[in-house]
């Protein structure tokens, strides 16, 4: 079964290079254009359903990306962005953020760990073939979530994990096994 993933369009905090996480930061005008360009790219992919993070930047991206294909869109709470806790809003170049980012098993101060994100994302990915058999699903989510999705399909080391990035409205396809994983 094919599954697609995309990251929301550009936000104001992407432009400002700030750690985003859970704050409901809006799309920029460029982010809306990116979502409309995504709408063109998803035509002909056979997508039958979208599962979307509850944050407005992902929901707006999904709404615009669904312009032509008009498939069911479901809010999926497990796709919400990684909670970076007290580091949300700080510059991405902040030494405190980079130190916390390097430790995958420890929670961000007031937030969640990469392992906690992986647990909720892996459980969702394990469910999709049973819940949506024969469908082609597009996940509309976030940067940190897309990094974890990538590890579900690809064995990568920690260094590659930290450098993996899905661009705003970039579309990536994976093959999801339809039997037991």
From TrEMBL:
Active site (record annotation): 8 (tele-phosphohistidine intermediate), 81 (proton donor/acceptor)
Which SUPFAM superfamilies does the entry mention? Answer: Phosphoglycerate mutase-like
Specify the domain of life of the species encoding this protein.
Answer: Bacteria
Entries under Pfam families matching the protein: His_Phos_1
One annotated GO molecular function is: phosphatase activity
Coiled-coil portions? none
Residues binding substrate, per UniProt:
7-14, 57
User: What PROSITE patterns does the annotation carry?
Assistant: PG_MUTASE
Q: Which Gene3D superfamilies match?
A: Phosphoglycerate mutase-like
**What protein name is recorded for this chain?**
Histidine phosphatase family protein
Organism this protein belongs to: Candidatus Pullilachnospira stercoravium
């Amino acid at each position: 079964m094919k599954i697609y993933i995309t990251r929301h369009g550009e936000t104001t905090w992407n432009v400002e290079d700030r750690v985003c996480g859970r704050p409901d930061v809006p799309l920029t005008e460029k982010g809306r254009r990116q979502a409309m360009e995504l709408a063109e790219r998803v035509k002909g992919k056979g997508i039958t359903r979208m599962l979307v993070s509850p944050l407005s930047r992902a929901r707006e991206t999904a709404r615009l990306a669904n312009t032509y294909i008009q498939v069911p869109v479901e809010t999926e709470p497990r796709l919400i962005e990684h909670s970076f806790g007290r580091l949300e809003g700080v510059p991405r170049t902040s030494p405190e953020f980079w130190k916390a980012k390097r430790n995958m098993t420890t929670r961000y101060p007031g937030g969640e760990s990469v392992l906690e994100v992986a647990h909720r994302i892996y459980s969702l990915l394990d469910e999709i073939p049973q819940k949506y058999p024969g469908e082609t699903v597009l996940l509309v989510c976030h940067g940190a979530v897309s990094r974890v999705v990538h590890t579900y399909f690809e064995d990568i080391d920690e260094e590659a994990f930290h450098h993996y990035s899905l661009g705003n409205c970039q579309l990536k396809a994976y093959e999801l096994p339809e039997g037991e994983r």
